[in-house]
Amino acid sequence: MYHDLKIEFGIKQTMRDGVRLSSDIYRPETEGRFPVVLTRSPYMTAEGFQKRFAELARFFAANGYVFVIQDCRGKNDSEGTFHPFFDDPRDGFDTLRWCGQQEWSNARLGTMGASYQAWNQWATATLNPPNLQAMICIVALPDPVINVPFQNGALVLWMAEWMAMVEGKRNTDPSIYDSMKLYNHLPLKTMDEQFGRKSKFWQNWISHPSADEYWKPSFYQNKFGNIDVPVLHISGWYDDDLIGTHINYTSMRKEAKSEKARENQKLIIGPWPHHVNLTRELDGIDFGESALIDLRRIQLDWFDFWLKDMENGIMKQPKVDIFTMGENSWRKAESWPLDGTKYVNYFIHSEGDANTSLGDGKLLTTTPSHEEPNDSYTYDPSDPCPNIFVTDLAPAEGPLDQRAIERRDDVLVYSTPALQSNLDVTGPVSVKLFASSSARDTDFWAQLTDVLPNGYSMHLTEGIIRGRYRNSLEKPELLESGKVYEFDINLWITSNMFQRDHRVRLDISSSSFPKYDRNPNTGNEFGKDTSLKSAEQKIYHSKEYPSHISLPIVGKDT
Question: Is 394 a residue whose pLDDT tops 80?
């Protein structure tokens, strides 16, 4: 343990184009060369971030590391202009090269960070920087068209607040905005001005809702074959960017550049939101004493093994460590998804009246045996189905009670009978929906909940698809009014033990506002609509159109 530390602020690194970026450096106050851990962030001037970064840096410096915290291009003390998702790969590469050349460096390098700081690690790693030997990626964003700022064609609307926060050299405190009011503004193209900004990157986003040539240079998830680094992947079941961790872990296990990298990926998912491992309780649901772990110790062990060759046992443990809600316990495994997982289709049924939780919607493992009448609802974007969230959690981040929206006539509700025994649902969840709309474009949204005997409908996971992107995120195709289409909705992943006497529930609607922008149902060019129109939606369930949710069932014959 090194008790005396040396801290240097505003140390400059020159990038290949001459732009100088700025770093704060924490290191032991002693002679010698040490392994280096780098984190690169746009958040140093955001409330609370500098203190958290400093605490992390002090911890690693006290344990024999040089910890470098760099302001991303255009942020805080770094020169240039911040262009999210684009400049970071090269800047990360150049900064790592600089770190390896310093007199206090032994050229054994690691990176770590959460959210955007995890995204830019992956983007940098695709360039295969020399001497990068380990990464810790926490709540990593996937490619931009999969999660943020767009999720399967729908704009994740709270990214407007993020835009307003990070635009400019110094971050803006988002609490100054009445964001809920501003989210109603149309057209989306001028929402930046409503937040007091004229944002070039917001304008680029609105102009490029597809996976087009604008976005393709920012993609990293098609380049895992370039990456040759052991990675510790960390996320939470209520992290709204969880899909990034899932894709990255499973893809690196299959596609990483070397067998060493493929075999040395480790996954941890707990009962946490985007800010992982801070509380055992979310919205009144207590996940128990084991919900919090000594994550800092695990992170230190990871770097000690890979950057200092210390045999501390971390790589002798199973590769996968996940928390199963419902039974509130951790489980270790060598594979993800878990070995023995069976994907079971639960089909939707009704006699045409599945609207609200008082309707006749059912969720059964049997396919419809006769031509059941379709279910229908009116999607009015001027009165969209809301996303239920609380102010200290991001939208959809928590086991929140969904009964309020399940009383709405524009929400279809399908539930199993009360379970006769526990049901372990652990792994990827998806919905196949056969539906038609009166609109040229519209959205379909779905969520999975765990219904307790007292009626509490606990959110587990959700997803959305914009109609024009049903076949491809790259090439949109508008709908024909009244035509039945197949919509595949990815609900990402979960791990929940549905207890005896609980029910499994699927909710279907066409909005979850303001998490996602309201589809105006016009089919017009994205972001320019100033008015909204209603759409008549029909959901089909029959032998010909077997709409269902696919659940990953573990340890049970079905």
Answer: no
Condensed to tens digits (0 to 9), the pLDDT of residues 463-472 reads: 999 999 999 9
Question: What does the pLDDT average to over 78-100?
Answer: 97
Q: Are 269 and 323 in contact (CB under 8 A)?
A: yes
Looking up residue 350, the CATH number of its domain turns out to be 2.60.120.260
Q: Which residues are catalytic?
A: 115, 239, 274
Residue 304, in any domain of the structure: no
DSSP string, 210-245: SS-TTTGGG--TT-GGG----EEEEEEEE-TTHHHH
CA nearest 154: which of 384, 533, 380, 444?
444
**3-class SS string, 367-388:** CCCCCCCCEEEEECCCCCCECC
Structural tokens at position 443: 């959205």
CB 287 within 8 A of CB 298: no
β-partners of residue 422 are none
Indicate the pLDDT class of residue 457, thresholds 50, 70 and 90: very high
Q: What is the C-alpha separation between 478 and 114, in angstroms, rounded?
A: 37
Instruction: For residue 64, give both structure tokens.
Output: 């024999």
Relative orientation angle of helices 159-166 and 200-207, to the nearest 10 degrees: 150
pLDDT at 50 over 90: no
Residue 531's CB is within 10 A of a number of other CB atoms, namely 11
| pLDDT at residue 416 in the model | 98
Confidence band (pLDDT; 50, 70, 90) for 515?
very high
Tell me the CA end-to-end span of the chain in Å, nearest whole number: 54
Instruction: Name the domain count of the chain.
Output: 1
110, part of any domain: no
SS3 of residue 1 by DSSP: coil
Question: Does any domain span residue 158?
Answer: no
Distance CA 451, CA 542 (A): 25
Q: Is 432 helix (H, G, I), strand (E, B) or coil?
A: strand
User: What phi and psi values does residue 489 have, to the nearest 5 degrees?
Assistant: -110, 120
Residue type, 220: Y
Cis amide bond preceding 386, omega within 30: no
Distance CA 463, CA 246 (A): 15
Strands of the 231-238 sheet, one edge to the other = 5-14, 20-28, 66-71, 34-41, 105-114, 132-138, 231-238, 265-273, 320-324, 329-333
Please identify which residue in the block is written with the tokens 């001028």. Answer: 190
Task: Quote the domain boundaries for residue 539.
Answer: 342-553
DSSP-derived letter for residue 203 is: H
CA 427 to mean position of chain CA atoms: 15
Convert the pLDDT of each residue in 188-209 to its tens digit: 999 999 999 999 999 999 999 9
Q: Which of 557, 549, 424 is nearest to 499 (CA)?
A: 424
Buried b (16+ CB within 10 A) or exposed e, 59-81: ebbbbbbbbbbbbbbbbbbbbbe
156 in a structural domain: no
- CA-to-CA separations, 64 to 17, 61, 253, 295, 296, in angstroms, rounded: 33, 5, 30, 18, 15
Q: Read out DSSP for 11-47?
A: EEEE-TTSPEEEEEEEEESSSS-EEEEEEEES-TTST
Q: Tell me the average pLDDT of the chain.
A: 96
Q: Write down the residue that tokens 């040539």 correspond to.
A: 213
